[in-house]
Specification:
Number of strands: 10
Strand content: 15-25%
CATH topology of the largest domain: Nucleotidyltransferase, domain 5
CATH superfamily of the largest domain: ATPase, nucleotide binding domain
Distance between the termini: 28 Å
Bound molecules: 5'-O-[(R)-(carboxyoxy)(hydroxy)phosphoryl]adenosine, zinc ion
Structural class: alpha/beta
CATH architecture of the largest domain: 2-Layer Sandwich
Order of helices and strands: EEEHHHEHEHEEEHHHHEHEHH
Shape: globular
Strand order of the largest sheet: 3-2-1-4-5
């Protein structure tokens, strides 16, 4: 065993996945255990905070145990460098379970605790999967709660290039899927149906596509789909799905391309649950190739919430800022720190 431990235990409980992982040097995943609660929330058509908190509490200990065992960590106090957990943004009752668990373990093992921003975790997902992939890069982070375009100049150095001014892309997927009677979460079934539908049936609006800048908007699109479906009850669901998906992908790809050009980024990548979308992946890869940029598309497991990305972000955050105080709160509205603001001693 090396004198200075380089393994970090990460814990993620911000929404409906109870996850723990052990990562070496912020880049090599030794274990990543994810217990999804999606089946508990499906009948309600969305995540129920109270149910999420209770399920995290029931699952956190077995999940952490499994992550340590899979990574071969038998003596955490000696083998780990720190324990990291997502402190926000997310559901407060869900966050508290992971944060309290991580603090308790850090205290018991006499290790530093590191609080991690969930979004910062998503930014690191690509670096975990491809050891040759390095910043600078532009990340399109598209999830159920967030839609951001971020320039990652180096670990810990971020600049916000654009964001949604209303709904997140995943939220639009979930709402339109519900309108079409496709269940929850809506992204995967909508994606599958869109692949067999005819997008030419109607042209839905591309929010802010004609506006300068890299901001995005999806609420107008959602309303247009609702109105159109009401006016055309005979339309095939697959065709509506295809037309909706084309509008979303068009505007996401356009703004990612614009953002990458703006900062002359040599590389782009996707992150977050919507990064699993097949049409978005194909379009972004084709655009990057045409523009001569490297492109990284995370695996489906790395698109959705997991703790390996939290451990990776925690590693860099710990090296830049040191330990997080044990009285640090869980913050449901935690914001990512961008370059204009102090970002610690990030290199
Ligand atoms: O990142 P994530 O697992 O959770 C957070 O929101 O943090 O993202 C979940 C979102 C949901 O809105 C889901 O419908 C969407 O990602 N999603 C997809 C696909 N797979 C998941 N959206 C479009 N196409 C997909 N294939
Ligand atoms: Zn997420």
């Amino acid at each position: 065993m090396s004198a200075t431990p380089r393994l970090l235990l990460g814990i993620e409980t911000s929404c409906d996945e109870t996850a723990a992982a052990v990562v070496e040097d912020g880049r090599r995943t030794l274990s990543s255990v994810v217990s999804s609660q999606v089946e508990l929330h499906a009948e309600f058509g969305g995540v129920v905070p109270e149910i999420a908190g209770r399920a995290h509490l029931a699952r956190i200990v077995p999940v952490v145990r499994a992550a340590l065992a899979e990574a071969g960590v038998e003596r955490p106090a000696r083998q780990l460098a720190a324990v990291a957990a997502t402190t926000g943004p997310g559901l407060v009752g869900a966050l508290l379970v992971g944060v309290a668990s991580a603090k308790a373990l850090a205290l018991a093992w006499e290790l530093p605790f590191v609080g991690v921003n969930h979004l910062e975790g998503h930014l690191y997902a690509s670096l975990l999967e491809d050891p040759t992939f390095e910043p600078p890069m532009v990340v399109l982070l598209v999830s159920g709660g967030h839609t951001l375009l971020v320039h990652v100049a180096a670990p810990g150095r971020y600049r916000l290039l654009g964001r949604t001014i209303d709904d997140a892309a995943g939220e639009a997927y979930d709402k339109v899927a519900r309108m079409l009677g496709l269940g929850y979460p809506g992204g995967p079934p909508l994606d599958r149906l869109a692949a067999i539908g005819d997008p030419g049936i109607v042209r839905f609006p591309r929010g802010l596509a004609d506006e300068p800048g890299c901001d995005l908007s999806f609420s107008g699109l959602k309303t247009s789909v609702l109105r159109w479906v009401r006016a055309h009850p005979e339309a095939a669901v697959a065709d509506v799905a295809a037309a909706f998906q084309e509008a979303v992908v068009d505007v996401l790809a356009l703004k990612l391309r614009r953002a990458a050009a703006l900062v002359h980024a040599p590389a782009v990548c996707l992150a977050g649950g919507v990064a699993a979308n097949s049409a978005l992946r194909a379009r972004v890869a084709a655009d990057a190739e045409a523009d001569g940029r490297r492109c990284f598309l995370p695996s489906r497991a790395m698109c959705t919430d997991n703790a390996a990305m939290v451990a990776a972000a925690g590693w860099w955050r710990w090296r830049a800022d040191g330990a997080t105080p044990l009285d640090a709160p869980a913050d449901p509205n935690l914001r990512l720190r961008f370059e204009a603001e102090p970002v610690g001693a990030a290199r």
